[in-house]
Amino acid sequence: MIQLRLKSECDRDLAPFVTRIAEGEPQSAEDATLWSLEAGALGYRTGQTAFRLRGVAPADIAGDVLLIDPRRQIAHRLIRAASPHNTFLVTEQCDQLCLMCSQPPKQNHEDMFGHFLTAARLAPPGAQIGLSGGEPLLHKDDLFAFIDAVFSSRDDLSFHILTNGQHFERGDLAWLRKHRARLLWGVPIYSDDPATHDEIVGKPGAFAQLAPNLSLLGLAGAALELRTVVLAQNAPGLPRLADFITLHLPFAATWAIMQMERIGFGRMNWTRCFFDSSTDFASLGAAIDLMRARGQSASLYNFPLCTVPPAYRGLAMRSISDWKQKYLPACGACSLRDNCAGFFEWYREEDGFMEIRPQ
Ligand code: SF4
Q1: What's the pLDDT at 1?
Q2: How far, in Å, is the centroid of ligand 1 from the Cα of 314?
Q3: CB 95 within 8 A of CB 138
Q4: Ligand 1 within 6 A of CB of 341
Q5: Would you state the pLDDT for residue 281?
Q6: Which residues are registered as beta bridge partners of 7?
Q7: Closest Cα to atom 2, ligand 1: which residue?
Q8: From CA 90, how far away is CA 160, in angstroms rounded?
Q9: Tens digit of each residue's pLDDT (9 = 90 or more) over 125-147
Q10: Which domains does the chain have, with CATH numbers?
Q11: Contact status, residue 132 vs residue 90, Cβ threshold 8 Å
């Protein structure tokens, strides 16, 4: 697994700071250049300070944007220059308790927007950065101000924001319209049946709040990616959800049907929730067929390619971020591997897909 945190050494009395590992000549005051290479430790310095990193090679972090935490002696890789999968964790707070949540909510919030702003300004050209939580829109004013500040200094960046869709208001319309070309909103909807959706997200009344807010995104012309994790609880109803989407949300750019991640609440509730689509793809296939017939886009995220019937494999994305992706020993000689999402690092064969068939 790719490490997102590195051991670092620097003056413990310093405040946390953001720096970029320079590739060649420094381009900004935050750029750090390599000045020493000792056994197991890389020494870097900026105009203001110096620090060391351990357990990494210079080429692996060239261009990366790091948040150095001197008190903990850790460097967080906020942006990996070579990766398209960079996400800022806005908050760990959330007002839902989804059955399969991979990042269970916490009470406390640490405001990181100042560091994120510096990091975004140092991002590689044209980067799309993910913003996730928790629920980022619990801090909507700060989030919107952060995005405004980034866009005012970088006209080449865009954001993919994961939100539960509970916190939009009519007063947000103008702001949503202003940035619609550079924001992609990923919003989960688990069922067209309010009771099923509410049960999955652990919040009574969530669907009743979500439905008008999705319409608001449509009114704003916002780019919308609907997201549905397939679970035992909602799998039979997927064709009805597809029908709902095509009737009420025809403006959605795509519908991502996703497999579960076995971590957080997802691990705790795995036995109760995991739906083995390798042995039963019927409801997914029917839902996708309906979307296709009505001219709307659907994609499959986090599905090992051999678990998807050939007629639907073209929709399966290599969606698992590189730092948490793995393949099984059986995948070694598989001819599909280059196009296959593989598995989450924390996937277990013993209670996972029954039918993994290398081809
Ligand atoms: S055998 Fe492995 S690499 Fe091949 S399609 Fe299945 S999961 Fe992917």
Answers
A1: 74
A2: 15
A3: yes
A4: no
A5: 98
A6: 54, 74
A7: 331
A8: 12
A9: 999 999 999 999 999 999 999 99
A10: 5-79 (no CATH), 87-351 (3.20.20.70)
A11: yes
